[in-house]
Task: structure prediction
Amino acid sequence: MSSPNLRRHQGFRSRFLRNERDLIVYLPPGYEEQPAHRFPVLYLHDGQNLFDGTTSFIPGMDWHVGQTADRCISDGKIEPLIIVGVYNTGKQRVREYTPTRVPKLGGGQADRYAKFLTEELKAFLDEEYRTLSGPEKTGIGGSSLGGLVSLYVGLKLPHIFGKLAALSPSIWWNQQVITRFAEAARVHPRPRIWLDVGTREGPRTLQDVEQFRDVLLQKGWRLGDDLHYERVKGGEHNEAAWSQRVGPFLEFLFPAGESTV
Result:
């Protein structure tokens, strides 16, 4: 199989966060050949871990998102989509991916990060690429703290992000503040959510994620319909484990046959 079609944008600047980061954009097979066609978009955090083992946090261990998406599209399992890998900024990652500030750990700039995503990054992507807009065509996802910020931003801005992927999300942050947020939030329209956790991430992690799942169920989400929950047997908290879940979460969030344009 040929290499995925990836475009890089270096040093993308944010006035909200007062920093810059690289972006990597995956274009689906057929993007160049169909100049009139527009595509759904999925924004994924920790962009350096997604497509290229040489840039990932643990060298050589990436999510293989490009190859997996190519394969799922070619096999007719998912609709062709654009995937945006949003690099983290290293030291500021914790600050940007968390909704509240915690003594010693810091954090609390997720609202500002959400503004960067919606007002700067999404605006740029919509101008630069042939994107579809609307929540049913726009997703956000990540793992660990990237999963936490995806849930927070998605539940806060469901009119923008209608598909959420939270792999091993850090529900524990600030005494499960995201669970309390979800309990109190009035979420309309309800996004489709992929939620998972590995059995080898610790009993507390498992318990936190399942408690969060139960809150979603109480709020009206339905398993197998707009919520997929998976307890991954033997799953650890690392890139290798998450790479195994890329195909399944893409199939749940962007199944083939949904595209209308």
Remarks:
- The chain has a mean pLDDT of 94.
- The CA atoms of residues 72 and 78 lie 6 Å apart.
- The radius of gyration is 17 Å.
- The first helix runs from residue 65 to 74.
